Amino acid sequence: MTGALVGVRRDFDIVGLVVLAMMTGLGGGVLRDVLLGVNPPVNIGSWERLLTATLAAALIFWQHDRVLRRERVVMLLDAVGLATFCVTGTIAALSHDITPATAVLLGVLTAVGGGIVRDVLSGRTPVVFSGELYAIPAIVGATLTTVAEAFGAAGIVYVGPALVCLGLRLVSMRRGWSAPGARRR
Question: Where is the protein found, in the record's own terms (predicted)?
Fold first, then answer.
């Protein structure tokens, strides 16, 4: 939905909304899979995921005024997606023969990559680079997932890293926390 909302704000047509919705929701996983050599990328091969992104774009196309009035709910859902994707992306990366640090990197890319693609396609500075505490919670969640995996964790244990990521994101949104930026002299 966040991708389609960006499209509405940029006066994109229905095709643009669908593309931005797909890139936002699925782009990070596609980038991860391309880097891992998974062919075809899982998200592209899943008609259910493509349909979900298309339905989200259609909802925004016809109901964007109503959705914009409830943007806090959309941001909450986006935070849930960030937490979910950083954990599932890290687990997917760890199923390949890579280092834990690379798995963390790919978990974070899974979580934030779609938003970066969305922002680049829509001509915006990526949100993840603009100071919002977005990538840092994903780094924490992906790192905790990698640690849990190293100790042989499975199943429900992965809810913990997701909740930590989600909590950091929600608290940062509520309190206006941001990542430090470089100071110009």
Answer: Cell membrane
The answer to whether 42 touches 120, Cβ cutoff 8 Å, is no
pLDDT digits (tens, 9 = 90+) for 107-131: 999 999 999 999 999 999 998 998 8
Cα–Cα dist 8/12, whole Å: 6
Any domain includes 180: no
Count structural domains, the chain: 1
Omega prior to 40 cis, within 30 of 0? yes
Burial class (CB within 10 angstroms; exposed 0-12, middle 13-18, buried 19+) of 26 = buried
Beta bridge partners of residue 132, listed in sequence order: 178
Does 183 map to a domain?
no
Judge whether 67 lies within some domain.
yes
Q: Which tens digit of pLDDT belongs to each residue from 7-61?
A: 999 999 999 999 999 999 999 999 999 999 999 999 988 899 999 999 999 999 9
Residue type, 130: S
